[in-house]
Amino acid sequence: MQVNYINPVLDSLVNVLGTMAAMKVRPGKPSIKTEQSARGDVTGVMSMFGPAARGSIAITFTAPVILELAQRMLRETYPGINEMVVDLAGEITNMVIGGAKAKLEEQGHKFDMSLPTLVAGANHIVMHKTQGKTVIMPFETDYGSFFVELCFE
Known about the structure:
By secondary structure, this protein is of the alpha+beta class. It is 36% helix and 29% strand. The protein has helices at residues 3-21, 63-74, 83-106, and strands spanning 26-27, 31-33, 42-49, 54-61, 112-113, 117-120, 134-141, 144-152. A hairpin with a 2-residue loop joins strand 7 (134-141) and strand 8 (144-152).
């Protein structure tokens, strides 16, 4: 996987969460993910496809992080994950991938995007519809962790 596809996604993520939720995030060490189990409670997944490459990006939030984001972005406190919180995960995913798409187009890469697919619940599965290796990048916040998965072929 080329790093020129990864960095725009990560830059967009930091920008979206910083701008929309005033949340600082600290990136961890990336690794290759070998299992399909999510490492959190709510996942938004989107595909990107273009003439030179296609990929799948997933953002998985643990409950404490997505609930804090909901409080900051929706101005409401939720006692647990519900439909509104799951929808927020999809909207965040859409904003992040949309921002990454714009950055990639500035670099001369043409991509279209799918609508987000949302999955929630303990021990859910994240399936990428591309055949490349999946890079997982952990992020830490003051409220817990979340994960970004990138799989490009």
